[in-house]
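Figure 6 in text form: structure in, sequence out.
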């Protein structure tokens, strides 16, 4: 970075039930941090609106019942966690609700989305598609190339190598945003 330049800033907002999506969000933030300042927040602690100095918003959450989580699927996850005697990461609102309340953005703010889901070609659906649709509806410029990261089952764990893929994707997002591009390969 050149002396005297203001670094770009990213905000990563995640929803996670069993910690898998949180691990991916941390890896994405780590990749972004190689080229820009990054704030990583769980959706329950996310700001009501995107701060004015943010250049890139990245959102990610688990795929529940073929799409974004909703109160009933989060309740099911809470019951699974209780049976397994584990603690949920995201206990309140999900990204669906946060995005619904976010408001419109007329400035050139870029966004990207990711999800975690079971790697099985027979199970369709992806939360990231819903995240992208919501972000577009609020006026965000979508950096194409959103990603799914894979878990072995509902509570996880992540498949081997997924956090490395997430870090690389974060680096690619940062490069694309800094270049003013809206497509990454």
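Output sequence:
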């Amino acid at each position: 970075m050149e002396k005297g330049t203001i670094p770009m800033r990213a905000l990563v907002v995640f929803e996670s039930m069993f910690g898998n999506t949180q691990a991916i969000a941390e890896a994405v933030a780590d990749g972004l941090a190689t080229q820009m300042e990054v704030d990583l927040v769980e959706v329950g602690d996310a700001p009501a609106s995107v701060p004015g100095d943010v250049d890139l918003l990245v959102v990610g959450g688990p795929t529940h019942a073929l799409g974004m989580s909703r109160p009933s699927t989060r309740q099911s996850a809470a019951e699974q966690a209780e049976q397994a005697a584990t603690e949920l990461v995201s206990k309140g609102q999900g990204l669906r609700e946060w995005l619904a309340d976010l408001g419109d953005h007329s400035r050139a703010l870029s966004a990207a989305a990711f999800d975690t889901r079971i790697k099985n070609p027979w199970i369709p659906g992806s939360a990231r598609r819903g995240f992208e649709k919501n972000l577009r509806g609020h006026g965000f410029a979508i950096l194409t190339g959103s990603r799914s990261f894979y878990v072995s089952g509902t509570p996880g764990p992540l498949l081997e190598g997924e956090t490395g893929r997430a870090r690389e994707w974060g680096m690619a997002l940062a490069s694309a945003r800094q270049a003013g591009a809206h497509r990454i390969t």
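Caption detail: The helical segments are 20-32, 71-83, 95-100, 127-137, 162-179.
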